[in-house]
Known about the structure:
Chains A, B: It comes from Micromonospora echinospora. The structure is a homodimer. With about 725 residues, chain A is α/β, with parallel strands linked by helices. Chain A contains 22 helices and 21 strands. Chain A folds into three domains: about 15-160, 2-Layer Sandwich (Chitobiase, domain 2); about 170-270 and about 305-525, TIM Barrel (Alpha-Beta Barrel), CATH 3.20.20.80; about 555-595 and about 635-710, Alpha-Beta Complex (Alpha-d-glucuronidase, C-terminal Domain). In chain A, helix 17 (about 535-545) packs antiparallel against helix 21 (about 650-670). Chain A is globular, with a radius of gyration of 26 Å. The N and C termini of chain A lie far apart (about 55 Å).
Amino acid sequence: MxxxxxxxxxxxxxxxAFGALGRRHTLVHGTGLLVDTVVDEVAGACGRYGGxxxxxxxxxxxxxxxxxxxxxxxxxxxxxxxxxxxxxxLLALRDAAALPAWARRLTAGADGPLGDEGFLLAGSGxxxxxxxxxxxxxxxxxxxxxxxxxxxxxxxxxECHRPALARRMLDHWDNVDVHPVTGQVERxxxxxxxxxxxxxxxxxxxxxxxxxxxLAACGVNAVAVNNVNVHASGAxxxxxxxxxxxxxxxxxxxxxxxxxxxxxxxxxxxLGGLPNADPLDAxxxxxxxxxxxxxxxRIPDFGGYVVKADSEGxxxxxxxxRDHADGANLLAATLAPFGGVVHWRAFxxxxxxxxxxxxxxxxxxxxxxxxxLDGRFRDNVILQVKHGPMDFQVREPVSPVLxxxxxxxxxxxxxxxxxxxxxxxxxxxxxPWWSEILGFAPWGPQGPTVADVAAGTASTRDPRSxxxxxxxxxxxxxxxxxxxxxDDPFWTGHPLAQANLYAFGRLAWDPGLDPVAVLDExxxxxxxxxxxxxxxxxxxxxxxxxxxxxxxxxRYTAPLGVGFMVRPGHHYGPDVDGYEYTPxxxxxxxxxxxxxxxxxxxxxxxxxxxxxxxxSERYEDLHGCPDELLLFFHHVPYGHVxxxxxxxxxxxxxxxxAGVEQVEAxxxxxxxxxxxxxxxxxxxxxxxxxEQRRCAAEWRDQVNxxxxxxxxxxxxxxxxxx
Amino acid sequence: MxxxxxxxxxxxxxxxAFGALGRRHTLVHGTGLLVDTVVDEVAGACGRYGGxxxxxxxxxxxxxxxxxxxxxxxxxxxxxxxxxxxxxxLLALRDAAALPAWARRLTAGADGPLGDEGFLLAGSGxxxxxxxxxxxxxxxxxxxxxxxxxxxxxxxxxECHRPALARRMLDHWDNVDVHPVTGQVERxxxxxxxxxxxxxxxxxxxxxxxxxxxLAACGVNAVAVNNVNVHASGAxxxxxxxxxxxxxxxxxxxxxxxxxxxxxxxxxxxLGGLPNADPLDAxxxxxxxxxxxxxxxRIPDFGGYVVKADSEGxxxxxxxxRDHADGANLLAATLAPFGGVVHWRAFxxxxxxxxxxxxxxxxxxxxxxxxxLDGRFRDNVILQVKHGPMDFQVREPVSPVLxxxxxxxxxxxxxxxxxxxxxxxxxxxxxPWWSEILGFAPWGPQGPTVADVAAGTASTRDPRSxxxxxxxxxxxxxxxxxxxxxDDPFWTGHPLAQANLYAFGRLAWDPGLDPVAVLDExxxxxxxxxxxxxxxxxxxxxxxxxxxxxxxxxRYTAPLGVGFMVRPGHHYGPDVDGYEYTPxxxxxxxxxxxxxxxxxxxxxxxxxxxxxxxxSERYEDLHGCPDELLLFFHHVPYGHVxxxxxxxxxxxxxxxxAGVEQVEAxxxxxxxxxxxxxxxxxxxxxxxxxEQRRCAAEWRDQVNxxxxxxxxxxxxxxxxxx
Lengths: 722, 722
């Protein structure tokens, strides 16, 4: 439990979420920083709800017992020497103590390794056992109990929980200085940064600690604390401002969250005064090596670097005639001795493209740049690949890079911050979208999924992937999300956008989870039944508002996978031609006859050929291509009949009318919660739903008018198009 | 002559421009600050070219003669008591001294009043006489001699010069603080402000003085020193920062330039702490009255206020249920005792318009807001009307407001800064455009012109204007230009954009001047024949590049008067649909069948009805409407045949191809000047012509592609459209 953040919304860790736990008599076996955290959490709960906690071995002297009781300082647990109530919950590190007989009975036969973060849960009804091999497992197990609530203490057979992905990371695009264009947080929609303000560290470590606690409770274990577009002050976090990073690392460490840093590839020049940053230059290598040593001196568990190189104007190895493997391996070599990794972003494309040139295709860029380098990256390089080939649109195919680099550790990058999905002014629950991405099977339904790729297990599951690396599970690159958190009292601007942060962590831990079930967890935790006027109605309403909100957002925005009909720059609201004649490579090519981008091998850019079968064939085939991606892959006449049976133009009209109607329905549903939930939260959501309604209608009208003006085809149902 | 600005380009006042004057023997009759300036200017020229200057009466003691000679401190003239060389140039205030016989002979019969700023020039060949009634006249006459060069001293009959417009003003949209969006100078394309930097006065008064000198030499006599969008620090110039304004006024005063201030209508609240700014509230009136007294205590010749009220978010009288007459008269009443005026901008429109609503028409707004108030404004209110009904587009009809308020003093506002005409990266000589506007005859060819309206003489010239006020010539509102000057070494970013500043002043003085002749003056002054390698070639080339550059710019940008196909926000470069679905009220309504805005009375917004005959009829008539304004007034099919015989769509294609070819030709012409003009200037212009070529091709391609995609009509000549 942290102090000093009392005006901040508790998100999915309100006191009430600890009610079942806090009534138990708990015994904790184990030592270490994260076990301390576990004990503190339990003690805090007991202080509120009357339970007790004992620890074995105790890490406070028996002569200074801290009574169990109302919340006070840290370490509010009963030392082992105090009189022992019957422990009905045992939290134990497997090697910390001999288990009692009941516990040994409950777990008979379940002695496989749980790993660094896994845990085992079993219960007889009277007694519950949580077992882990390492402190982090105990911490994750504890929050699992919190999630389960009273059900955690039912009788249950042994369950083992291990994260599918070892790396579950949030990247903060937080600027240290306020940037004249992108502000304090690039693509941030939740106020300022929780780390930085106006060029300096905020110093509000209570808030950072609270953040770490929320992350641990949804499963995130790594955070990059500054923007991948590294500006002047951000660059210096690596050197003279390293102390700021160390303070954050110290604060997040008790919750098992490691800190990573975005660095500029030009650091040897910018910070070191060297004449160049050539990755093959000995002085450059020495500079980076010294930098890494300094970092690990201060932060022994430092996670590593995040690098955006040769991308949208950031410096990179191309300047020196080197390639991305040269660049990434340079940094990786300096981190390897300390166990650090390099997250090297694959978001490399020509952002000075000529719209007149229909043969250049931004969608192809990451594949064309990186697949020739497969096998050349060091073991501690993680190639961080955006989930789609473009840029976090509401609908894109999965990036073919994810199926094309078997000898490279790949991380999947998704955007929790809603840059292109309503900027936290619109309700848009992204769990279903991420679930679809992670479950996508690039080699066909029998093959491994994107989640397997991120886990590093794709090659072991299906030889068709052509894997040469044979990586182990822990060698996957994991899942990375761009954070949606700011210094807003609700953390995420839109209170309901908390669900995205929560779902990100949960799906990173287990990509197989049903996103609606994850949402249900979030609802139960965040709106504890005891605190709401009508728990059933609250739960039903939140599901009604959130479950399908991603599809709703898709309906009223850019149709059929075509993407990028947003206002340039800030990316909020519609502008159908906004990027149509720009250098950014994001076009729809609408004319009076049709719309869409021909990316076929037969007549287009050939992008379909970057996929393995069966998708290379399905996407290529006008009639096999999924409707929702049709305009991503094909340029078709407005009269083209979709698999749904509707024409493209009628689909555009219908979905845009339907999307707005659905937003109106969401507003009506939400209004039923007046007086049933926290008034401040109610007001905030209501105000944002009004804006969502306004903006959705604007999307509907602009998109429909644009296509009516261009196609001349009237709406079959005669609705008003302006 | 000012010191301390030696790295700044001399613009149209290089030393060489004073060669003919500086070889003369000059006698100056008169006293006063501006006569001092005249003497200083002549002395400076004599110091360089060997002439002499004497003054009668002397304003320095006879015991301290200052020798005529090399440049030194100020007042380098020969006192009247020194031995007198034969004066072959006499500069005299008519009442300062008895004229010698030769001068009386030369001016026999020419004894009409010259006014505050007029002058009389006559010459026998041996002797030249410049006569004025007031010191400013002598100063303007002096710069007239400079402009004439050697020809000034030819024999010539009496010429009287009086400004057609008494008020010739530049508005600086300079922010005191750097604004997060608009920067130091809103719509500035020539670096920072010459007045302000980072929230403070720059203190570089030498540069300000040099600016005043340039203004006097082209005829400008008033400057507003801060942005009409008045932000926090700008507002305080009226109160605690008044000293900054006084320093500028002191610096400009010797060149006959009065200082005006943009004020916020909310000043009584923002600065005075009053609960409201209601113009009918006694406390508000008292606050403004006290403010005016304080201003005139510091700046006795303060010009007055400029006010943008109830416009694009600026505060105004609407907040209090009052109208613009109430608002303007409030301020005017407080300035009247001191001789000040209020420039009240008529740029009031709904910038939160719904694009779906085709009946609301931004073009109508100024007329609808202000004409009902005609006759209600105080004598010292000047209603400042943008030349067109929209916003400084490259082509608009003249604002009908200028023909509809006979009982109001009207100023015409033009934009010298090239917001919509290439932002001083493109060559675009605006003299012909302003000449066309000022020469426009709203009541038909026999009636008064826009220049007459600005001069206040429209009603005396033609009773059809329905004037009720019977204003005198000096009661016109004059011509106001938004300045294009910044702290750039060439003053205007693009060196050739100096011609616009020069032409603004000259056309304000005499709207009947031929803009090409004005340009020729500028060329001869700025590129003195003695300093260029091939004077004839330089002059021909500058004419070839500049003379038609406005029409060239029009050709490759928005066609046929439709306007606003620019990138939103910064307004540079093409974006055909950029404003099409926005709240700004600036649309073209292009669809697959046609393009243009129906502003007719018969079927459109009725805007044509705001004009008097004959224009109300001509604009209404599809076939009578001038081609260049067709799409401003009518929505027509792409196949509509223009008066030129071409279809609209073919006109679009042809002009866009032609415009780019003309820019290429300009580049070729300019290159002939390599080695013939100042290398730094040559390089600057060359670099900008490259950018103009790039940008013009971008305009061509985007506009042509947009209309080909929409219309499906191929180019008759089969040229490449993307």
